[in-house]
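Memo to structure team: turn this sequence into structure tokens by end of day. - J.P.
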Amino acid sequence: MSVRSPLLSSSRLFWLLHAGGWSAYFFSGYLYGLAHGKEGGYWKLPLATALAGFVVTLGLRQVMRALWHLPPGKLVAAMVAPVLLATALMGTVFFLVLIDWCGEECRPDNLLGYVAYTTSYVYVILAWVGLYAGIKYYQQLQQQTREALAATAMAHQAQLKMLRYQLNPHFLFNTLNAISTLVLDRDMDTANRIVQALSAFLRHSLDADPMQRVTLKQEMDAINLYLGIEKLRFAERLHVTTDIGPECWSALLPGLLLQPLVENSIKHAVARQVEGGTLTLSARVAGGKLVLSVADDGPGCPALDGNDLPNGNGVGLVNTRERLRVLYGSDQSFEIRNRPEGGLVVTIVLPFETGGAPRG
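Reply from structure team:
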């Protein structure tokens, strides 16, 4: 239905303008006759010419639709003959009705007079052709604009979904490897809990719509599903602390935005240290912005170049940065830096919003 409605709307618009325009042409001619004291039967002239114009321009419409694929220059050249023919037909109708109204005294004395009658309406036909072409070009431009916007939106959504669903195979590999080890060690209870936790996390991850935003409370629930798996793997080696302001829990943000950051910290700060490490998640509101940070106490990244990771590292961080750029444009910031006391901290600044339509 949505595909047909623009065509139907365009057709209705044409008939409304076509009938309205020629009706206005008739009434203007009729009022002209009254204003100049023409006899009562004069109304036949504007009526006949308006009806003739109504019919012949319908023919011109069909010709223009058939030739519309031509370049503008060739279209103009191809329309010369149809326009002259339509003008001659309209002028001939006017001439015949004129003779019927005022008799032989209105008949021209020479051939030039006949030519004048049959070409006197060329400006009317040209005006109709110009208006028709202008409206059609405008509608075509609007349609192309709508198609371009739709294509951009589809590409936008596809890009977000690609970035959102690019699960880190490192996490899956390590989790499955941990399950395999537990099975070999016959620790079925822990292996079963990891399988259930992994299933719950993947179900949440794949069911969530990347075009929708969630509250920070919902985001933390998802992060806790992920951390539940990692805590089963690392046991006492993984410590997690949170520092979230009470006003932040209802803040909106893209779903699973923080998971790649948490995963990156566990991979580089916890897994690589025998004693493990501490992960700190914090959120606060400052200056109308939501400030999120994920910090660890690992070795940091000595090769960090400003706000950029070395090539080949931090795929999850790069994807997160790109998601934010696509969703928020310049109305966000993403910073990676080494902490003076050791470790790495990633800080995200977003507009603080607690309601409204999803971005997308």
